[in-house]
Design goal:
By secondary structure, this protein is an all-alpha fold. 68% of the residues lie in helices and 2% in strands. Bound molecules: 3-hydroxybutanoyl-coenzyme A. The site of 3-hydroxybutanoyl-coenzyme A has 30 residues, from helix 2, helix 4, helix 6 and helix 9.
């Protein structure tokens, strides 16, 4: 048996025995590359994900709402930094990751290419988007790669606050005036299907799932987590006395799950191709922030170098 094969067999045995793989452990190059791909996209999603919400900080309806939204957005920035740090343990630099994002070469979750049009969107994003993220991220706490799994533990604790504050925003609106109730339903209608796409393509169309599940990077398939999400949201929305924009949504006693309608994968792929409502705006905003922040990075580096010379 070749040395490489023996190493791969020993690696898979460690994965099967639920051992955590750490940065200095031997790992197949494809395992490393898969983790860089997924963790960097996750980090980019956290950072770009701040933009739709940042749009409403100055227009929050009360100081309390503003403080909660600021705290959430600050958390997302921190999640991005944890995840860039986790990616760096795999041998890629943060600047390389930023450069890929700013050059439009890196993916981030398609959901963040949609506009946040009303205050109710802050509720729908917190409840639906962070709710989908939690469903996915709780599973990632058991990921085979140690730094990623550990980053997820803290991120999930903060995400649950994000989801609760979002749900509360919608609950208040759903008990308000007719205009507020309409705003609430409109936001749910616009964010529901893009949230469903956050779990990735159907299992049959997912090129990475089989291998990622063998390596226990992914613990559940895209469709399994999506189904759990539908089952959860379909119950929670009853409290809001609102509806999901899916005429096919129906409890299926035989399955023990909610049936739901088809996802528009053409829309999904179109957004991935850069044709979403906000793709260009998101990247331009991100690049401008990076360029405007250059002086801060230079000052910090100069200070650090001066410190080392003392
Ligand atoms: N948006 C953009 N691209 C997506 C996507 C989405 N919603 N879902 C899948 N894709 C891409 C994949 O990246 C892959 O493309 P690539 O080969 O160019 O990387 C392709 O579609 C095929 O999808 P697969 O399901 O085969 O790919 P994965 O095995 O990587 O699964 C995933 C996709 C489930 C998103 C997985 O990557 C994952 O779990 N990522 C970590 C979680 C994450 O990134 N969440 C994003 C949101 S973070 C967030 O919402 C923060 C919150 O605080 C608001």
């Amino acid at each position: 048996m070749s040395k490489q094969l023996a190493l791969e067999e020993r690696f898979q045995a460690r994965i099967d025995a639920e051992q955590k793989i750490e940065p200095k452990d031997w790992m197949p190059e494809d395992y490393r590359r898969t983790l860089i791909r997924q963790i960097s996209q996750h980090a980019h999603s956290e950072v770009i994900g701040m933009l739709p919400e940042g749009n409403w900080i100055t227009r929050a309806p009360s100081l309390r709402r503003k403080v909660a939204l600021l705290a959430k957005i600050q958390d997302e920035a921190g999640h991005g930094l944890y995840l860039y740090s986790a990616a760096e343990t795999l041998g890629i630099s943060r600047v390389e990751l930023y450069n890929e994002l700013h050059a439009g070469k890196a993916k981030y979750s398609s959901i963040f290419n949609y506009p946040s049009l009303t205050w109710a969107d802050m509720g729908a994003i917190g409840w639906l988007v962070d709710g989908a993220a939690i469903m996915n991220q709780v599973a990632l706490c058991k990921c085979s790669y140690g730094p990623y799994a550990r980053a997820m533990v803290r991120i999930c604790k903060e995400e649950s606050f994000h989801q609760r504050q979002g749900f509360e925003i919608l609950l208040v609106l759903s008990q308000g005036t007719e205009a507020q109730r309409d705003m609430c339903q409109d936001a749910i209608n616009r964010w529901w299907w893009p949230s469903m796409m956050m779990f990735g393509p159907n299992d049959s169309d997912s090129p990475h799932s089989a291998q990622s599940m063998k390596w226990k990077i992914k613990r559940y398939s895209n469709d399994t987590l999506r189904q759990r999400y539908v089952d959860m949201i379909a119950e929670q929305i009853k409290i809001l006395n609102m509806t999901l924009p899916d005429p096919d949504l129906k409890w299926n006693e035989a399955r023990g799950h909610y049936d739901f309608g088809p996802i528009d994968w053409e829309e999904f792929n179109n957004v991935l191709r850069g044709n979403g409502p906000c793709n260009r705006e998101r990247l331009e905003t991100r690049v401008k922030a990076w360029e405007n922040g250059a002086w801060v990075r230079e000052a910090a580096m100069a200070f650090a170098e001066k410190r080392t010379r003392i």
